[in-house]
Amino acid sequence: MNVNGKHFRTIWIENNNNGIVKIIDQRFLPHRFVVEDLTSVGEVAVAIKDMHVRGAGLIGAAAGYGMYLAALHAPWDEFFDHSMKHAAGLLLAARPTAVNLNWAVQKQFEAMEAASTNAEKVAVAYKTACHIADMDAAHCQMIGEHGLPIIEEISRKKAGKPVNILTHCNAGWLAFVDFGTATAPIYAAFEKGMDVHVWVDETRPRNQGASLTAWELAQQKVPHTVITDNAGGHLMQHGKVDMVIVGSDRTTFTGDVANKIGTYLKALAANDNGVPFFVALPSSTIDWEIEDGLAQIPIEERGAEEVKYMEGLCEGEIKKVLLTPENSPAANFAFDVTPARLVTALITERGICKPQKEDLLRLFPERKR
Ligand code: MRU
């Protein structure tokens, strides 16, 4: 998508230097646009853990590139495989909830298995990392195409009046390689000239909605309004939300959805008010091993300081301020699970389906056992 009119992806390889992976360092948005160079798997793991990059798809793409950098720097002797296992361990320990991390690491191992020499393994890891990133972008674009008719129908029913869409956190292009998931149908509708307006949940504690979703919508000139996390229910009660679209960090094959903390409350409010609640996701976020999201999806708990402090721009500088009494403890659950029964439909790169096993397997028949 565009930044000041110029096309960017969220992650890419430096022109003329295959040893440098470039990322948009999201810690500085929306106030500064910073591009960071990553040259080792250790740096990639830190970038994931400390959220220079975040969002399920982008975490997966970063892990793919991280494995490539690990291969590039691994000793070209009998310790190569050991070194790759160590690299995988570093990446897998970075963040637990988004399944894309494990998915991308496994894809790299599967691809390298077919190569015989270490030089071939490096070449294959490079190709696979680029493929993971390209697929992520392509799948997000397809999600936009499949989700577009939903917005078109609401727009038709409202005789062209603005379609009000609520989203939570950032499932935009910054969370993926390009286009995003929840935002892809919105961008497609906006490009077709439809009148859309997005309610953007600020998304405490890290405020991915207020700082990232609002920034990317503003960059694409899509009308939007930032709201507090608690405002969604009120807006739905007053008919000001036509649909909710969120992303997913891990989706069970039975349709339960782990997404940013607070998603579940939005789903409950939507259900109570008859507002359709859609989840947009590429198949890389589907966990085909897990049946019960509530019991089986690991929920990341992050540091208390993210809750206790808030960051923002003050007199031209990014500053951090304390919100709570200094010694009050804080808890920081980063994700929650929305049960399938509260989800109207899933929007995937292969089409739309009900959040249930049979429907998901109809779209992804190769997953049948
Ligand atoms: O903690 P984050 O920012 O990596 O959380 C991921 C998210 O952005 C959301 O949960 C998002 O809605 C999922 S789509 C990648």
| Rg (CA only) | 20 Å
General shape: globular
Number of strands: 18
| Name given to the CATH homologous superfamily of the largest domain | Translation initiation factor eif-2b, domain 2
What's the SSE pattern?
Answer: EEEEEHHHHHEHEHEHEEEHEEHHEEEEEH
The protein's oligomeric status is: single chain
The structural domain count equals 2
- The parts where pLDDT drops under 50 for at least 5 residues are none
**Residues in helix, %:** 25-40%
Strand content: 15-25%
Side by side, the strands of the main sheet go: 8-7-6-9-12-17-18
Largest sheet: 7 strands, mixed
> Remind me, CATH topology of the largest domain?
Rossmann fold
Structure description:
With about 375 residues, this protein is of the alpha/beta class. It has helices at about 40-50, 55-75, 80-90, 100-115, 120-155, 185-190, 210-220, 230-235, 265-270, 295, 305-310, 355-365; strands at about 1-5, 5, 10-15, 20-25, 35-40, 165, 195-200, 225, 245, 250, 255-260, 275-280, 285, 310-315, 315-320, 335-340, 345-350, 350-355. The strands form five sheets. Strands 8-7-6-9-12-17-18 form a seven-stranded mixed beta sheet, sandwiched between helices. The protein has a four-stranded mixed beta sheet with strand order 13-10-11-16, with helices on one face. It has a three-stranded antiparallel beta sheet with strand order 3-4-5, covered by helices on one side. Strand 17 (about 345-350) and strand 18 form a beta hairpin. Helix 2 runs antiparallel to helix 3 (about 80-90). The structure holds 5-S-methyl-1-O-phosphono-5-thio-D-ribulose (MRU). 5-S-methyl-1-O-phosphono-5-thio-D-ribulose binds near residues 55, 57, 249 and 259.
